[in-house]
């Protein structure tokens, strides 16, 4: 009887225990189905940004892809940056501008091409192309689902479009990976 009670207790509470231990920085697997509205969300020091790592490399142990859900308040934007992975965006809400420089073989990115993005649009950023996403709609948030390959992402940031590629600064781990990266290091000591 006592044993059955213990088993019943474990069965009843194991989903909650799993949810708590795997909510952040667990590479031991994550629950198969998760409610996105309960996932950790933060601006990671960037005012006007909301970032959720839906499924991540450093955060959850994924090896091939990483998925983010990001919301940019009006007027906010990503840094000018590049990374050697593929990146696909799906615009869920709002509109804005993608600035993209295909000049990864020139000395500097140079003046970027501008693309208008809109709700239910999708776009792809080729490997190593310097780009910046900007919510240029002053009335509405811009919400995007982002899929990147080859995580964890190693981002090279530019102060402006005339900065030489060789002067771009590596930001690794990236803002939302910092916490999990440090945890990993501690675990190894
Ligand atoms: C986006 O496009 C797809 C394909 O046409 C359509 O089924 C869907 O309803 C659209 N979603 C929105 C939010 O407009």
Model description:
The chain starts with a helix and ends with a helix. The protein is of the alpha+beta class. The strands form three sheets. The protein has a five-stranded antiparallel β-sheet with strand order 1-2-9-4-7. A three-stranded antiparallel β-sheet has the order 3-10-11, with no helix packed on it. Strands 6-5-8 form a three-stranded antiparallel β-sheet, with no helix packed on it. It has helices at 2-21, 57-60, 178-188, and strands at residues 49-55, 65-72, 80-82, 87-93, 95-101, 113-118, 122-125, 130-134, 142-149, 155-158, 169-171. It has three helices and eleven strands; from the N terminus they run αβαββββββββββα. It has a single domain, classed as Jelly Rolls (Sandwich). The structure holds 2-acetamido-2-deoxy-beta-D-glucopyranose.
- For CATH, the homologous superfamily is named as Jelly Rolls
Taken in chain order, the helices and strands follow as HEHEEEEEEEEEEH
Q: What's the arrangement of strands in the largest beta sheet?
A: 1-2-9-4-7
CATH topology: Jelly Rolls
- Examine the secondary-structure arrangement and name the CATH architecture: Sandwich
What is the straight-line distance between the termini? 43 Å
Strand content: 25-35%
Outline, from the CA principal axes?
globular
Low-confidence stretches: 14-23
> What is the domain total for the residues?
1
Number of continuous helical runs: 3
CATH class categorisation: Mainly Beta
Structural class given helices, strands, pairing?
Answer: alpha+beta
GO cellular component, one term: endoplasmic reticulum lumen
Function: This is probably a receptor for the plant hormone auxin.
InterPro entries: Auxin-bd, RmlC-like_jellyroll, RmlC_Cupin_sf
Main location: endoplasmic reticulum
